[in-house]
Design brief:
The protein is of the alpha+beta class. The chain has helices spanning about 5-20, 20-25, 110-115, 140-145, 155-165, and strands at about 55, 65, 70-90, 100-105, 120-125, 125-130, 145-155, 170-180, 185-190, 205-210. Helix content is about 20%, strand content about 35%.
Length: about 210
């Protein structure tokens, strides 16, 4: 191959590289799925050691339009708690939004002496606790100091952190209690009370920040 041919091929290769470069196209690599989600602003944060903090939704916070459903914020929500149990879900309409539930306990429902007297389990998006003789706390205190919460991760990084959380971890979770609504009319609404129980008593949380303490 002649020197002239080599020079021509080299010039053509350089032009091709320039043409397909990000500079020439003015493009960047596609954004990660997390970056395409709407902003997830933080609500007011609970003080360490306090009960979960629920706050009003500021005027500037609008519904979060996700692929599976639109999430309408009902209240700001911030909690520091101990993980009593976790359960992952891969089937059911709810799993399109929330891949896991965390059963959380705060105040005395985070203490070893109390939890040693309870048998705790999860299933079918419910949280169950039992005792064999006498309850370690009044049942009303157990109910208002613990809850099963459906976690909707605000982005991929939060999803990865949630996936690593295990029983007995202590966590801080900040986000929004929401009502999810799909175009076909399907709805999933969060509780906005810590004292209710039974159907509809679980929190549906759009998680904007999560920290393992």
């Amino acid at each position: 191959m002649s020197l002239r041919t080599l020079l021509i091929l080299g010039l053509l290769a350089g032009l091709a590289g320039w043409w397909f470069s990000d500079v020439r196209r003015g493009a960047r690599a596609p954004a990660a799925a997390a970056d395409l989600r709407p902003d997830c602003p933080l609500p007011a944060r609970v003080a360490a050691g306090e009960e979960p903090l629920q706050t009003d939704v500021p005027d500037g916070v609008r519904p979060f339009a996700l692929q599976a459903a639109t999430l309408t914020p009902l209240a700001g929500f911030s909690v520091e708690a101990r993980v009593l149990s976790r359960e992952d879900y891969r089937s059911g309409r709810e799993s399109d939004l929330s891949p896991l539930d965390l059963a959380l306990g705060w105040r005395r429902m985070s203490e070893d002496a109390v939890l040693d007297g309870l048998s705790i389990s999860q299933g079918s998006r419910w949280y169950h606790y039992r005792w064999s003789d006498q309850p370690p706390l009044a049942p009303s205190e157990i109910a208002r100091s613990s809850a099963n919460m459906h976690m909707i991760p605000g982005n991929d990084a939060i999803a990865r952190t949630l996936a690593d959380i295990r029983k007995d971890d202590r966590v801080r979770i900040d986000g929004w209690l929401v009502e999810a609504q799909a175009p076909d009319g399907w709805r999933w609404r969060s509780s906005t009370s810590r004292t209710d129980n039974g159907g509809g008593a679980c929190e549906v949380v759009y998680v904007c920040a999560v920290t393992r303490l």
